[in-house]
Design goal:
209 residues, alpha+beta, Alpha-Beta Plaits, 2 domains, four-stranded antiparallel β-sheet, 7 helices
Length: 209
């Protein structure tokens, strides 16, 4: 009884630590979600061990945890045009379940080290993103504008005013509007400034990254 209570507490602490990091940065699958996933995976793992002691297949329930968590993670992945979001959330859900299973199998050191490693990775990744904002990198701008070539030329000139070189430009016409995909190299600050200026143009109806 004492052993299971310890595992419950550790699952809530480890899952909660990862959940707090996600919630602090306003990401999906926050504190409560990560606690529940870690706790649930741990309980299913303990049940699989009990099944093994009773003469059943100890890996049967544990294997289904991996499949079930895969469905939860897939539900967090969204696609908006050419942009896909939610992959990090799905990976986070997957690894939190793995941590819960490690606690269930009494691999507390492994579960704790993995949690710390993920927290450090997230911190390093966010710091790296800030550094990348200062460097030029490939990025795309998708916008909808007036169905006039003059509007497209004006948009291109507005971008090139920031000493940004356009590498590729694709234009399609749908619903009597031009849909423009522009690929160029920007710094993060240049990108923010350019998108703000483009949105202020009357020829531009909408813009997204």
């Amino acid at each position: 009884m004492e052993d299971i209570l310890i595992k419950i507490v550790i699952s809530l602490v480890l899952g909660g630590a990862l959940g707090m990091e996600r919630q602090y940065h306003d990401k999906p699958a926050g504190y409560a979600t990560n606690c529940l996933i870690c706790l649930g995976a741990m309980l299913f793992t303990v049940l699989s061990e009990y099944m093994g002691n009773a003469g059943g297949d100890p890996g049967r329930i544990a294997a289904q945890v991996v499949t079930g968590v895969g469905f939860i993670g897939a539900g967090s992945i969204l696609r908006d045009g050419n942009k896909i979001s939610g992959l990090t959330t799905a990976a986070n859900v997957w690894v939190v379940a793995a941590i819960g299973m490690a606690v269930g199998y009494n691999q507390l050191f492994l579960a704790t080290c993995t949690t710390i490693a993920i927290l450090l990775l997230q911190l390093f990744m966010r710091q790296t993103i800030h550094i990348m904002e200062l460097l030029k990198h490939y990025d795309s701008i998708f916008l909808v504008c007036e169905p006039k070539w003059e509007a497209v030329d004006k948009i291109s000139k507005q971008i090139e005013k920031q000493n940004v070189t356009i590498l590729k430009q694709e234009i399609t016409k749908q619903d009597n509007k031009f849909h423009v995909n522009i690929v160029a190299t920007f710094t993060g600050r240049e990108f923010q400034k350019i998108t703000k200026e483009l949105l202020e143009m009357p020829e531009v109806y909408s813009l997204y990254k």
